[in-house]
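Q: Could you fold this chain for me?
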Amino acid sequence: MIRRADIKIRILVILGVVALSIFYIYPIKDKLKFGLDLKGGMYLLLKADTSRIPKDKAQEAIEVAREIIRNRIDEFGVKEPVIQIQGINSLLIQLPGEVDRERALKLIGQIAFLEFKLVEDDKNKIDEALKGNVPEGYQLSSLENGEPILLKKEAVLTGNDLADAKSGFDSSMMPDVNLTLNSEGVKKFAKVTQENVGKRLAIVLDGKVKSAPVIREPISGGNAQITGSFTVEEARDLALVLRAGALPCSLKLEEERTVGPLLGSDSVRRGINSIVLGAVFVAIFMLVYYLLGGVIAIVCLILDLLFVLAGLSLLRATLTLPGIAGMILTLGMAVDANVLIFERIREELSIGKPLSLAVKNGFDKAKRTIFDANITTLIAAFFLFIYGTGPIRGFATTLSLGIIASIFTAVFVGRTIFNFLLLYNIKRFPMLEIIRNPKINFIRPRNICLLISLFIIGAGIFKFIPSRDKMLGIDFKGGQILEYKLTPPVSIEELRSILRKEGFKDITLQEFRDIKGGIIIKSKKDITASLEKVLKGRFKKIDRLNITTIGPSVGNILKRKAFLAVILSVLGILVYVAFRFKHFDFAFAGIVALFHDIFISLSFLAFFHYELTLLIITALLTIAGYSINDTIVVYDRIRELIPKFYKLPLRELINIAINQTFSRTIITSFTTIMVVLAIYILGGTALRSFSFTLLVGFIAGTYSSIYIASPLVLLFRRRRSIIK
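A: Sure. Below is the predicted structure, expressed as structure tokens.
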């Protein structure tokens, strides 16, 4: 039993951590950063073309491009943008809030390279150029109205000579852009206009001639105008990009994820509802089954949630939709540590130990298992963070914080509360017991269980191979997913007919199950502009919910990263389990069971026609951590029983271990599956495939820890009767 003085110190530590956590999360709106998928916005990955830039200047060009884009976005008015260099030649841009997609893409991607070039008025040279014989030092171009124009290649001024650019109106009240040159530009402009009175001077933007006015007289003021068929907004945006400066290289859109505010707010509502429902399910069960222990577990769960939110605020991490899923999952998995402790206390009480000693032994014996089980899940989360992108990293961060918080609350906070109650002479720790001393022969049906598993996996592979192209989602094969809410709503057949008549053939249509009028359109090409033009002409109102564009090269990179994340997670878990149990065959049997759960999950995804996306990879890695978690609990019990029953055959030893941990396995699985069901029911379309995968995987994980992992140890050690 912990001394009274130590309990006081522990309580002060807990209160201090709670107070610090509240400080970091209050008020939540100001302290927590919400991801684009929760409040809407754009996520862009742009690849820079540095092929024309010397290698030693390429990195500098990327950095310059980042600053120019930052200046453009600042003037665009988006608050708290994220602009990062990713890899060698890519830029990651996140624009939170409601963003005009087309305008943002144009502002970010436009090079805005401005040049002033003299126009050649020699008719002979123009005629030769039109015949295909462009004179050296010249280039053939055309005005916006199609009129051919011969320009001198060398620019007399460039955007570097610009001091300012503002939108305005010309004498005909048409929008234009007024340019003000810097001191060096004024000198150049005065010289050029003085020497070329009567000639035309073309203003060229990104290789296109915007206008070519005649120089009537020398201009010494350093002012010029760009005229053309602009709208007011186009003139304003052109002035904006000219002020910010030209990009040193072209940028190609590789990946885009645009979430409308409507879908974002819907995701928040559904996420909160599923958290509340999942937490209520778990709380009710723990109260009913463990009574006083249930109250302690609920206190620990509330503190878990508080500490996770505080951790996100402290790390300045972003809470995303997968992050909310990780939080819900954390609540379910956090119960495991409490259940392990309570079941250990029950065992100690059942052999006549006094309550104070039962509590001490229960915590001491459960502690090692809790650490072993959670560290394996942390290994999976670690590789998920390294190889994940955006929202997936958010999931890994939330899951990691949740695991650390649950260890602290169960081992430290829970023990402190128990010992505090013991000081006030609590005499009993009543609990319900549905499963009492089971004596099931789990080893006997191992061959039948293995055959059933092999049959399901084989059927899944048979189903997957012919439809693998359909199963690979946009994250891995590239393409575009467009999600809209149409008013008035329309049937999928009618919409398909409308789009087919408009020439949209290679597309796939789906309906949202939880948004009236919601439709999902998948295409291998970028059809956003043309599609929205058709929809706006046919429907009273269209709300853009989500746009995802993935380039083929990005898809290949994500495939490679997903593969590395899975393989390295499995290897990390294998090394850790082998090290902790000092037996490689234990680790190998656990990894086989882990792969069993992953392949069972993939098989059911194939049976129910779900696509394989990054979110599914996240679910599979979570299953891997959960699966080995369950298996380690049984392995720890086997290791504990060895000194007591060293004369028993390994078959009987494994049976005893599984029976002794059976109650814990069922309770933990039940509470976790309840939480995942809450995500499945209330999480909406965005989390449907994710929660389905977890549901299948957790059921498979419970089954494999009993019927696959432990019997495999027996198979690998069939010539030895006991573990040494």
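A (continued): The CA atoms of residues 449 and 707 lie 7 Å apart.
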